[in-house]
């Protein structure tokens, strides 16, 4: 909305507005390049003929800078967000180098990506022995959020791609100029990384990244795609050298493979012989143990047989002795019974003899008495007879 009397232009956002008698709708005119960039994917825009504010969708992990020409200040917006231009504000167009090798003002954009991403470049170097080489390199990069966003230094360097590539190329040229072609050809990756990242003073190893303090850009890795000589003679010599190196490497690998195979074969034979010796020793040990067991069994068997024989003989003698004892006892009992019987028979005989004698004596006595009586009677008769 423009005040035609004072010339002041203001923006009204978010509600309905009624113009006064001194106000008219005003269309902000943008630079044709900005108009073109706003038509890119992920960016939208509303301005031009329609009386609306110019806007831009800031993608994720990207920065957009808006400059206020009236206040001479700038503001940085971190995506994802929507940026609306005030009447005195303009988008800052970022012009970056592109192509291989890098050429300025190739890439035009409103958004500054924070990465991580990569950029590629082709540079020409010269070694200590004046061999000119063409290097195809790529760099992994990202912005430090603390420097680029919080401090607002992301747009401090207009063409960070070109400045970074030029700085890195200068470092590589300076470092490679102190090395011979043969040395560089053998250790190109390490030499380039050392030239870019330098040496860590604490560990003494090649650093992990290089940071540009002006805008917080960090180069985290360098990849060497190719190393090609510029001079045709050098290229031909390099081709022959590479072929020779390949042949030498192939022969070396073959020799190493043969030596490893021979060593493996000898080691296998040695292990087999050691295993055979161990098996024989183990067999002898087992055989010795078997013989010891057999000897022990034989000793146990003979000892058992002797013990059994001795035990059987002892038991037989014990049984024989016990039998003799029992027989003697039986004989003693038999003799005792015989003696008792003889004594009993003798006793009965004696008793019978005694009874017989008593009976005989009684008969004799009876006879004598009868005889006496008869005598007495006879004598009486005789006496009575005159």
Structure, described:
The protein is an alpha+beta fold. Helices cover 52% and strands 21% of the residues. It is built from 6 helices and 14 strands. Strands 4, 5, 7 and 10 form a 4-stranded antiparallel sheet that branches. The protein has a 4-stranded antiparallel sheet with strand order 11-12-14-13. Strands 1-2 form a two-stranded antiparallel ribbon. Helix 3 (160-176) crosses helix 5.
The coarse silhouette is elongated
What is the H/E order? EEHEEEEEEEEEEHHHHEEH
Mean pLDDT: 84
**Tally of helical segments:** 6
Structural class: alpha+beta
| Whole-angstrom Rg | 70 Å
Low-confidence stretches: 46-50
Portion of residues in beta strands equals 15-25%
Q: Helical residue percent?
A: 40-55%
Summarize this entry quickly:
With 386 residues, the chain is of the alpha+beta class.
Which descriptors apply to this entry?
386 residues; alpha+beta; four-stranded antiparallel sheet
Layout of secondary structure:
Blueprint: E1 2-3, E2 23-24, H1 32-38, E3 55-58, E4 62-68, E5 73-78, E6 81-84, E7 89-91, E8 94-98, E9 103-109, E10 112-113, E11 117-126, E12 132-143, H2 145-150, H3 160-176, H4 181-186, H5 188-197, E13 210-212, E14 217-229, H6 232-384
Antiparallel strand pairs: 1-2, 3-6, 4-5, 4-7, 4-10, 8-9, 11-12, 12-14, 13-14
Helix pairs in contact: 3-5
């Amino acid at each position: 909305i423009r005040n035609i009397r004072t010339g002041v232009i203001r923006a009204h956002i978010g509600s309905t507005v009624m113009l006064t008698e001194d106000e008219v709708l005003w269309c902000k005119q943008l630079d044709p390049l900005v108009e073109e960039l706003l038509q890119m994917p992920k960016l939208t825009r509303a301005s031009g003929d329609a009386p609306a504010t110019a806007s831009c969708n800031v993608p994720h992990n990207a920065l957009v800078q808006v400059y206020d020409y009236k206040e001479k200040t700038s503001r940085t917006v971190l995506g994802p967000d929507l940026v609306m231009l005030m009447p005195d504000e303009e988008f800052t167009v970022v012009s970056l180098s592109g192509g291989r090798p890098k050429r300025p003002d190739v890439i035009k954009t409103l958004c500054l990506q924070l990465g991580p991403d990569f950029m590629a470049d082709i540079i020409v170097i010269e070694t200590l022995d004046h061999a000119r080489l063409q290097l195809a390199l790529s760099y992994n990069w990202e912005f430090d959020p603390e420097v680029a966003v919080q401090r607002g230094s992301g747009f401090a360097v207009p063409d960070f791609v070109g400045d970074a590539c030029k700085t890195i190329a200068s470092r590589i040229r300076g470092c490679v100029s102190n090395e011979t072609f043969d040395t560089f050809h053998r250790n190109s990756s390490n030499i380039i990384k050392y030239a870019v990242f330098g040496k860590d003073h604490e560990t003494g190893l090649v650093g992990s990244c290089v940071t540009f303090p002006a805008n917080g850009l960090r180069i985290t890795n360098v990849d060497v795609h190719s190393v090609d000589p510029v001079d045709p003679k050098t290229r031909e010599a390099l081709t022959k050298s590479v072929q020779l190196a390949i042949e030498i490497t192939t022969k070396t690998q073959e020799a190493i493979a043969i030596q490893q195979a021979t060593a493996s074969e000898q080691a296998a034979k040695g292990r087999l012989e050691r295993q055979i010796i161990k098996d024989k020793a183990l067999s002898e040990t087992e055989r010795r143990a078997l013989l010891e067991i057999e000897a022990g069994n034989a000793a146990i068997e003979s000892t058992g047989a002797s013990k059994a024989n001795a035990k059987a003989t002892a038991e037989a003698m014990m049984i024989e002795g016990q039998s003799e004892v029992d027989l003697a006892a039986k004989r003693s009992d038999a003799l005792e019974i015989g003696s008792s019987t003889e004594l009993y028979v003798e006793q009965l005989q004696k008793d019978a003899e005694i009874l017989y004698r008593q009976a005989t004596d009684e008969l004799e006595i009876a006879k004598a008495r009868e005889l006496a009586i008869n005598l007495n009677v006879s004598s009486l008769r005789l006496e009575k007879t005159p």
